Structure formats: structure tokens, C-alpha cells
């Protein structure tokens, strides 16, 4: 059996190249190894999609279950990305609808079964109302 690859530590040293059409970053490993990579800004959405799909596959293959978020539950600890807008769009299949999230540098699309839209809408509204009510108390 092959040795496992080095464990990821962090991304660092972000720098634009080619007048901002591409970016370069350093991938650092806990072992101290690192690698320089560059990619087009237009590839960012594909990279995000790949990582999310990979996490879903690994979760499914390992048999682990990710608990559903709880409205009004404990805070989620992530480094948030500013969203400029959200919306829905038509997917390539009538059985799917796209949830689109626009950021400064990239638009990311998530697929939702069209049959789930009636459930997702009220859940989204409930979470927004709960979070808005929490903000008004502060």
C-alpha cells in the first residue's frame, strides 16, 4: 500500500498574475512541504464544485452522516465568503433547479431537485427570519 500523501495545512501566498486573469497560491502541508499552483479565475467555480462533490463522495463511501443544521442552533464556525446575491436558475434537466450564489470573483451553482423547492423555500425563509430576529435583539 502506498504512503498517504502529505496532510493539507493551509492555502497561502495569494497573488494575481496575468493582469488578474489568473491567480497563484501556495498549498502548504503539515509536513512542511508546499507546492505553488496557478489557475484562471474562471476555474474557481469548477474547483469549488470538485471539492464539494469529493466531500460528498467520501462521506457517502465512508458511511458517515452529516447532521442537518439546526435553526437557531449553535453557530457554524467557517470563514464566510461575502455573497452579493442569491437566486434560482434553470438546470439542464427539468428535474433539477440551480441555486446560484454570486460573489465578487465567481458565481457558484448548487443543484436542488425541483421537487424539493416547495420544502426549501419555507425552510430558507424560516432561517432568515430566525437569524434576523436574533440580530435585532443585539
Question: Would you kindly provide a written description of the structure presented here, covering whatever features stand out?
Answer:
The longest helix is centred in the C-terminal third of the chain and has 20 residues, at 117-136. With 138 residues, this protein is an alpha+beta fold. The model has no long low-confidence stretch (mean pLDDT 85). The strands form 2 sheets. The protein has a 3-stranded antiparallel β-sheet, with no helix packed on it. A 3-stranded antiparallel β-sheet has the order 4-5-6. Helices cover 28% and strands 33% of the residues. The chain folds into 2 domains: 1-65, Roll (Nuclear Transport Factor 2, Chain: A), CATH 3.10.450; 84-138, no CATH class.
Structure, briefly:
The chain has 138 residues and is an alpha+beta fold.
- Give the rounded overall mean pLDDT: 85
CATH fold call of the largest domain: Nuclear Transport Factor 2, Chain: A
Q: What top-tier CATH class of the largest domain fits best?
A: Alpha Beta
Distance separating the two termini: 55 Å
Total tally of structural domains: 2
Number of helices: 2
What is the overall shape?
globular
- Share in helix: 25-40%
User: Radius of gyration in whole Å, from Cα?
Assistant: 19 Å
CATH architecture label of the largest domain: Roll
Overall SS class: alpha+beta
Q: Reading side by side through the largest sheet, how are the strands ordered?
A: 1-2-3
Please trace the helix and strand order, writing H or E for each element. EEEHEEEH
Largest sheet: 3 strands, antiparallel
List unreliable stretches of 5+ residues.
none
Strand content: 25-35%
Q: Report the count of strand segments.
A: 6
